[in-house]
Amino acid sequence: MIELKCVYKKYKRGLFFSKSYVDVLEGVSLYAKKGEHLGIIGESGAGKSTLSRVLSLLELPDKGKVYINGEEITRKNISKKRGIVGMVFQDPSTSLDPKMTILSTLREASANKDEIDKVLCEVGLRKELLNKRPYELSGGEQQRVAIARVLLANSEYFIFDEFTSALDVSTQAKIINLLCNINKNRDYGFIFVSHDVKLIGFLSDRVYVLYKGRVVEETKDLSDVKHPYTKVLLKGEIDGSDSFVDAGCSFYGFCPYRMEKCMKEKPELKKIGEYEKVRCFLYD
Length: 284
Ligand SMILES: Nc1ncnc2c1ncn2[C@@H]1O[C@H](COP(=O)(O)OP(=O)(O)OP(=O)(O)O)[C@@H](O)[C@H]1O
Ligand code: SF4
Ligand SMILES: [Mg+2]
Known about the structure:
Order of helices and strands: EEEHEEHEHHHHEHEHEEHHEE
Number of helices: 10
Distance between the termini: 30 Å
CATH topology of the largest domain: Rossmann fold
Strand order of the largest sheet: 6-7-8-3-9-10-12-11
Oligomer: single chain
Low-confidence stretches: none
Number of strands: 12
Largest sheet: 8 strands, mixed
Strand content: 15-25%
Mean pLDDT: 92
Structural class: alpha/beta
Shape: globular
Radius of gyration: 20 Å
Bound molecules: adenosine-5'-triphosphate, iron/sulfur cluster, magnesium ion
Number of domains: 2
CATH class of the largest domain: Alpha Beta
CATH superfamily of the largest domain: P-loop containing nucleotide triphosphate hydrolases
CATH architecture of the largest domain: 3-Layer(aba) Sandwich
C-alpha cells in the first residue's frame, strides 16, 4: 500500500531569491492499494501533478509522511524505493530520451532480452521499433514504450498523470484497453490522475477529488457525489464569475450552498459512508 499522511508541499513563486511561496498541497492524506484502480481528479492547478510526484517518490513532501508497504520514505531510502512506483507522464516525447534508441531505453530498466521481448509483446510493440529513436515513433507507440519501461522495472504501482491527453481519441482508446488488459489479474496498483472526469469514472474503483491542494471528497461512485465542488466539476460548470474569497472553506466564493459558518471555519474531511468522505459543513 502507498500511504500519504497529512502531506504539505509548497513552491517558491518566481525566481530563486523570492520569499513568496505558493501552497500546492495542504494536508493531503490518502492511500492506494495493490490491485486497485484509483482515480485522482481536479481542475488545472489543483496540485495533481505535484501529488503524482510525491506518490511516485520523485519528491519528498515539506511536511507529512509517505509510507510504501508500511515503511516510511525518507531522504535516505527514497532513491532505493523509487522503482516500486513507476510514472507514465502526459507527453511521452518528453519523458523518453530523444538520443537513445528504444532498445537502450528499455535496457536501462532490464538487461534481460527475454523479458524485453515478453513486455514488447504485452504492450503490442513490434520488435522492428527497437532500433528507432522516440521521434521516429507515433505518440501511441511512444506511450507504449513508456508503459513497457515501467513494466520492466518491476514496479508494483503505476501512476498515469494525464497519460492520454497528448493522444488522439482512437489511440487513447487503444492505450486504455491495453492498460485494462495488463492489469486484468490486478497484479498492480494503478493510479490514474486527470482533469477528465469521464475517463477517471470509467477507469477507477475509487476516486479522490482534489481542490486547491486538499482532498474534498473520496468516493466509489461518481454518479452520487456529495461535495458542491465535485458536482460542479462533473457538470463541467466551473463558474469563474464569482471571485476568490479568503474564507474558512476554500470553495466559499463559488459555492451555491455557502452558509455563515463556511466563511469563518475550515471544514474537515469527514467519513459519511464506508468508502465515502466529504469536506463540507452540509454533511456535518
Ligand atoms: N516546480 C514548481 N515550482 C513552482 N510552482 C510549481 C511547481 N510545480 C507546480 N507549481 C505550481 O503548483 C500549482 C499546482 O500545480 P500542479 O502542476 O501540481 O497542478 P495540476 O493539478 O497538475 O494542474 P494541470 O491539470 O494543469 O496539470 C500550480 O499553481 C503550479 O504553478
Ligand atoms: S463547507 Fe460551505 S462553502 Fe464549503 S462547500 Fe460546503 S456548503 Fe459550500
Ligand atoms: Mg498536471
